[in-house]
Fold this protein.
Amino acid sequence: MKYITTNGYCPECELKGKKTELFLNSGDIFECPKSRLQLVKCAANMAVILRWRGKGELRKTVTKGTDYLKGLILTRAKDEPMTIISERTAFHDKEELAEYISEIIE
Ligand SMILES: [Zn+2]
């Protein structure tokens, strides 16, 4: 199975054709300054898209997503241990990704 990997930019903005850098926020989660989507590195090879948006509280010391997230497999946030990639959590195409992101609660 082929999975979608991240290049470190915001996956939501990228669906709209825009490259937006993610930055570490005060909760140590990568956040998009535009859409406030949150992405967190999990295990060695996963980047989990959280189901709620950030508050825009970015750290003063700039840490870019493109320096830490490149190549990680994008996955859904699930109520189960996130240690291995599974068919249910990883995204296989942009349609799945867009559907999940549209369900993110503010
Ligand atoms: Zn964004």
About this structure: The chain has a mean pLDDT of 93. Helices lie at 11-15, 94-102.
